[in-house]
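Hallway conversation turned thread

IA: we were arguing at lunch whether anyone had actually written out valine--tRNA ligase end to end. Turns out nobody had. So, for the record, here is the sequence (288 residues) and right after it the structure tokens. Reply here if something looks off.
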Amino acid sequence: KTGSLKSKVKSQKSKVNGVIVAEKKPERCPVCGSTDLVQEEDVLDTWFSSWLWPFSVFGWPEETEELKKFYPTDVLITAPEILFFWVARMVMAGLEFKKEIPFHSVYIHGTVRDKTGRKMSKSFGNIIDPLNIIAEVGADSLRFSLVSLTSFSQDIFLSEDSFLLGRNFANKIWNASRLILEKGNVVAELALPNNKGIKSPKPAHLPDFWILSRLYEVETEITRDLESFRFNEAAGALYQFFWHDFCDWYLEIAKFYLKKKKQTVSILFYLLDNFLRLLHPFMPFITE
């Protein structure tokens, strides 16, 4: 680390009181050649300005409207390696100068690594350009894949093949939705006013009761996961429900009733509408 050394040279002919900045402690002063060097005792921590970030960016020490509105905030998202150097010290500074902690929750995300386990870095040349991934599989596929792979506080091992998960899921959603939307002649009478969704259907058969109960279970599960920052578990619950419960089971059963039972169509629309609303934070484009 770069240190600051103060040279205090005492001699009969001259007295030097200067500052030397060096990466390593020098053996002698480069100006006068003296070896009587004393390390500076008053050093400012390089993280000091970062401590003040939660309130200094909003005009502190002035009590601006922005400061009143945005301090304290709700959540800080950060990596684990700077908990002591940054996060803990922001809390200390907030308590010292504002008498209140700067945030109420801290979400610690993992480090993105390549498939060999090395940290992704420009210097290593192992980064994956997200724009290339978006061009190949779409933004929704990228978003859903990343969220699904981001386990709570665990590192992510990423390769270009990792995004096939999101691509395949998007294709599944598109194909299943097209099958249901072919029955679009009943959408108007099923829709609630002011774009509030589809009318709650009345189940007629055992599969209807089962799939609706699964939907309500998933809604509860996702709410709990999102509130506890377990985003990958929420994404996994949506994936499991739509791909396996809805498509593999209920949709196949419903095909036998589509031509005979209007009630089956209403349940399909209700399930699709609610699923797309739940999925929207993860895949905003296809759900729109």
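OS: looked through it. Confidence is low (pLDDT under 50) at residues 1-15.
IA: good, adding that to the notes. The domain at 163-280 is CATH 1.10.730.10 (Isoleucyl-tRNA Synthetase; Domain 1).
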